[in-house]
Structures are given as structure tokens and as C-alpha cells.
Write a structure and sequence with these properties.
homodimer, about 150 residues, mainly alpha, three-stranded antiparallel β-sheet, about 65% helix, DNA-binding
DNA sequence: TAAAAATAGTCCTGCAGTCGTACTAATTCA
DNA sequence: TGAATTAGTACGACTGCAGGACTATTTTTA
């Protein structure tokens, strides 16, 4: 008899599969010098620039970790540091052309994954899935803000 | 306007929240000498014993990694090695009383999480969520077997 | 059935990720 | 203005992780 897997584990399985596909697609497109952890941080960089602390929070890692990862990203040409004029303590991280290109590739792969999932589930169930996950976010996302 | 987060990311957020809660609950119950990676491996140990390679596959890590993690688990009293009589090359990993106790605590916390989620979503949406996730597993779980 | 190929696990080594502690510089508060 | 807070960094220690090479066993095959 099939053991009923915890809902959270089912999510983890699907999420991991998606992450693997994105990493694979990036690798195939020539972005093979970015690791998974670096990519997660990179995904949080806004076009206008983002503070290190914010990136750390988004990726759910400490600022120390973010600093270390960003140093590597910067060396690989995936991030630029510029001083924050509003606050002398802060540093803004800005994406480079290469960063934006990588993010674009990732988004395309993401869309493909969603399409595959939707094809497998059917649009109705896919819609229900998203609806449930978005609601769940209200109680599981430590950085959830309704207006965001 | 709210940026539509990828479905996979929504899953990751919820799954991580669940994992954090389980780790926290175990820690509170005195199982504070097991790390997350070790716990993931431990979760795969069957009562009758499980081969190292199988545990590695379940946790999606290499055999080398599994060996190292199991050495720590064994030292902490969470696993026992016994030779596999059917195959002289293989080693079976068996849970100890402490392992089973820890797994029991984890299961209880899991049930609590499911209950919280269900309360937030309502039973109908929760059912739909599980249904979609179970279907999705068919195309996202590299170790999925229908009869399991 | 002896030799070759495959398999299970381990050891070694090196590197990425992670964070606690402690620090500097800048800002905000009282 | 002095004290407390905040942003980020440097250092050091540890975990997780896997590739390559190795041993012991089993399975295949010629």
C-alpha cells in the first residue's frame, strides 16, 4: 500500500525538480559558472539595485553568507556593488547585463515548467494548485507582505 | 502590483517552513544533535533496515555523502550497521530506539503542520492541493514508482 | 568455471555554503 | 552630543557534498 507522503514533502519533490531543471537549462545556455546558492541570491537582485541585507533575507541566509556569495558573483561578472547614496553604511547590488540575461533564461525555463505542469494536471487543477499555494504563503512565508 | 511568484517557488516557501518547524520541534524535544541533512537521511531508514545506497537515493545525495552522514548518525546513536546476509557487499542501516522516537516526534509535528494548513485552506482546498501534488509527483519524482 | 564486468561501500581530498563572534563605519535616537 | 542601532565585512570553524581511486563481493559471460 502506498504510504501517504507528507504534503510538504510532495512540495519539496516538485520544487526540487523545477530547480534542477532551471540549473540545467542555465548550464546548457553557458551560465555554468553560477552555483545553485549563488543563483538563488542572484534571483533576488532588482534592476534598480538591491541592498545586501534584503538579498540575504529573500534567500533566507545570513548577511555573512550573502556577502560571501556576492563576492563570488561579482568576481564572475554577475553583480556590481555601488554605494547607496541614501545611506552611507549600505551597499546596493546591481545586476549586470549578464545577470539579466541569466535571469531571462531562468524565467523562460520557469514558464516551460509551469506549462508542463499545467499540461499534466489540466488547467483547472493547476489553477486550484496555485490558489492553494498562494493562500498557504500567507502563513508560511516569513517575509510575506500582502501589498507586495 | 503583486509579482506572480513561480509555482515552484511557492512550494519551496511552504516546504521550507514545514521543514523548519520539524527541526525546531525535534530540537525542543531534545533531539538537538541531528542536523538537517542527517535528519533527511534518517527519515529514509526503514524499521527492517535499509541499504546505504537506497538511503542515498532517497535523500538525493551521493553514496559518499550518505556514508559520511551515516557515520555521524551512528556515532550519535541514531543508526546501526548490520551486514546484509543476502549480499556480502552491502550494509543494512537499522534504526535504533532513539531513531524511532525521533521519527515519531517528526511525524507528530508533520501532522500538526497538515492540520494548520488544512485549517487555513479549508478541507476542500487542502484536498485539491494534495491531489494536484500527488499527480505532479508522477512527473517530478525521479524515484516515483506507482506501486510503492 | 575461470576471467571480466558490475556493484556496494569506503577513504581521501578539496571546495562551497553556512553562521557565530567580533569588528568598523555610518546613522538614528534620546 | 553621546548612546544605541544598523549595514556590512573579516575571520574562523564546521557541515555538506561529490569526484577519483580503492577493496570486497557478486554477477555476467565466454
Amino acid at each position: 500500500m502506498a504510504p501517504r507522503l507528507p504534503t510538504a514533502l510532495l512540495m519539496q519533490i516538485a520544487a526540487r525538480s523545477a530547480e534542477d531543471r532551471i540549473v540545467e537549462a542555465l548550464r546548457a545556455a553557458g551560465f555554468d559558472d553560477v552555483t545553485l546558492a549563488q543563483g538563488r541570491l542572484m534571483a533576488g537582485i532588482d534592476v534598480e539595485g538591491t541592498r545586501i541585507g534584503v538579498l540575504a533575507a529573500r534567500a533566507q541566509v545570513s548577511k555573512q553568507t550573502a556577502t560571501a556569495l556576492l563576492a563570488k558573483l561579482e568576481r564572475a561578472g554577475y553583480a556590481e556593488r555601488i554605494p547607496d547614496l541614501d545611506d552611507g553604511r549600505a551597499t546596493l547590488i546591481r545586476p549586470t547585463a549578464r545577470t539579466l540575461e541569466a535571469i531571462e533564461h531562468a524565467r523562460r525555463q520557469e514558464a516551460e515548467i509551469e506549462a508542463d505542469w499545467s499540461a499534466h494536471l489540466g488547467p483547472r487543477r493547476m489553477k486550484q494548485l496555485r490558489e492553494a499555494l498562494e493562500m498557504l504563503r500567507e502563513i508560511t512565508d516569513p517575509y510575506f507582505t500582502p501589498m507586495e
